[in-house]
Amino acid sequence: MPGPLTARLYENPTVICCHSIYSKNILVKLADKLLYKINKDLQQFDFCKPTKLTIQPYEKNYPLHETGRDINFVFIIENKGPGYAYDVQIFIVSHFENISIPEPFHHLGTIEPSSQRFEIPAKVKEREELAFIEVELEWKNFDRSISNKYSEFELKGQRSNLDWEKIELEQPYSLEPIETEDDLVGREKIIKDLIRQSHAKSVGSSYIFGQKRVGKTSIAKALKSQLETDDFLVVYLEGGDYICPDPKDTVEKLGIKLCQQIRDATPYFTHLPIPKFKDGAFSSVIDFLDKIRIADTKLKILFILDEFDELPIGLYRRGPFGDAFFLTMRSISGKPPFGFVLVGGEKMDFIMSCQGDALNKFRSMRVDYFDRENYWYDFHELIRRPVKAWFDINDEAISKLYNQTAGNPFYTKWICSNVFNIMTDRRDSHITPAEGVCASYYAIKCLYNRLVNIFILTICDKRIIFCHIWKQRVSHLQ
Q1: What is the rounded CA–CA span in Å between residue 156 and residue 60?
Q2: End-to-end alpha carbon distance in the chain
Q3: Pair 181, 192: CB distance under 8 Å
């Protein structure tokens, strides 16, 4: 059966300059065979086969309560294949009267087998909780046949009772260490283990370690807030409170600080003199603690030393001075009323390799990123809990954010704080991946120079790799 081209040749041979019956018969038969071969070959390729398009609303709630507001209804058009969809068009068939759609027709062109995001501009005319819209999706297949699909959608509105002026003053994603367990997310098991250990007959000792910015200081401060009672004293010191460049000065300052905080904790100890730490001998603390035990037989004391791995290297390197310091710590931790929690970063492994024998009774607790297998719910809570009174966050947005930060709590909160600012500026209370990507771009650009300045100065492989990852991310987004 001759195709369209063959039929034209029979009717009008001059199309291909056929001026004789011989040329006509030869060329027409040749064209017919070529056309047959081409059609047969094309049928083997997916892009020539018929296709199927679907359209679904994006998981987004809209501010339908704000009269006069311009909004964009977002839809996902998916070409399920196997062929391409040509000359794709969308018609807005009908919609509720609470919205107006100025452009009821949209031409999308060609869509290959994939998903594509599409927005329909609209304006809110009347305050409602829902919006209804009916659309027709029309496309052509490779063989020029026309297909179409009708769909009806009910689009939900956002919360309408938010005081945006007050919300703008909030700072839900603080980057400072958490002070209480109620505000700490995802570390409840570590806190409970430390509390259980501290309330045992003999106050135990531990060391908490992990990469920077994963919440170690927050754990220490939350533990302090949970343990402190009339019969339990927690002495918490940050690295800047006691660490000096010289090892002897560090021991002296540490000893004085510990004794001062114990003496100032209750009027019963104010008469006790602060011991002298001659030649950096930390053992003077033991005499002071013996007097404390005599003055209050029920009191338990837990010493939390943050940034412990920032000690000068001469203090934890093997030798008479370093060995004496750690043996004193071992002796103190061996007494039932006293215990230590040492908090540090990656260098804690090196300290333990040098002085592990003295601290072999210290329990090891590693703090890491939130991983999907064990802490996926906690990662959700880290993002949702601070803003649950104002914002709704869909699951896909959280997954996208996890892919950006690999579960690092600090950088997750950094990006979330940018998302919060973006959403309050827009007066939009429903967070989707689109807002997360926008905030990630801004946050990563801000962090780029900071990461380079911090990480390029260290020889730790993990930090250099992390810097490289963020550097690649910025280049990709640009």
Answers
A1: 8
A2: 56
A3: no
Rounded to two decimals, the pTM is: 0.74
269: nearest Cα among 313, 301, 224 = 301
What distance in Å separates the CA atoms of residue 93 and residue 105, rounded to the nearest whole number?
9
Asked whether 284 and 255 are in contact (CB, 8 A), the reply is yes
Categorize the per-residue pLDDT at 323 as very low, low, confident or very high, splitting at 50, 70 and 90: very high
- What is the C-alpha separation between 243 and 261, in angstroms, rounded? 16
Measured CA angle at 198 (ends 197, 202), to 5 deg: 90
Across 82-118, b (16+ Cβ under 10 Å) vs e yields ebbbeebebebeebbebbeeeeeeeebeebebeeeeb
Q: How far apart are CA 327 and CA 208, in angstroms?
A: 19
Q: How many residues does the chain have?
A: 478
Q: Are 138 and 89 in contact (CB under 8 A)?
A: yes
Burial class from Cβ neighbours inside 10 Å (0-12, 13-18, 19+) for residue 347 reads: middle
Q: Where are the alpha helices (DSSP H) in 12-91?
A: 21-42
48 — pLDDT class (breaks 50, 70, 90): confident
189: phi then psi, degrees, rounded to nearest 5? -65, -45
Q: Is 23 left (phi over 0), alpha (psi -120 to 50) or beta?
A: alpha
Most confidently modeled range among 98-102, 175-179, 344-348, 461-465: 98-102
Answer yes or no: are the C-beta atoms of 345 and 220 closer than 8 Å: no
Would you call 347 helix, strand, or coil by DSSP? coil
How would you classify the pairing of strands 232-237 and 300-305? parallel
**Left, alpha or beta for 213 (phi > 0: left; psi -120 to 50: alpha)?**
left
Which residues, including other chains, have CB under 8 Å from residue 136's CB and lie 6 or more apart?
A: 90, 91, 93, 148, 149, 150, 151
Beta partners for 53? 79
Q: Under a CB-based contact definition with an 8 Å cutoff, are residues 367 and 214 in contact? A: yes
Q: What is the pLDDT of residues 300-314, one digit of tens each?
A: 999 999 999 999 998
CA angle 402, 407, 412 (to 5 degrees): 75
Angle 148-152-155 (CA atoms, 0-180°, nearest 5)?
135
| pLDDT of 278 over the 90 cut | no
Q: How far apart are CA 371 and CA 213, in angstroms?
A: 15
C-beta separation of 132 from 115 below 8 A: no
169, two tokens: 């003053």
Amino acid at 314: G
**pLDDT at site 289:** 95
Sign of the alpha-carbon torsion through 240, 244, 247, 251: negative
Question: Beta strands 115-124 and 70-79: pairing type?
Answer: antiparallel
Q: Which of these, 369, 436, 426, lies nearest to 396 by C-alpha position? A: 436
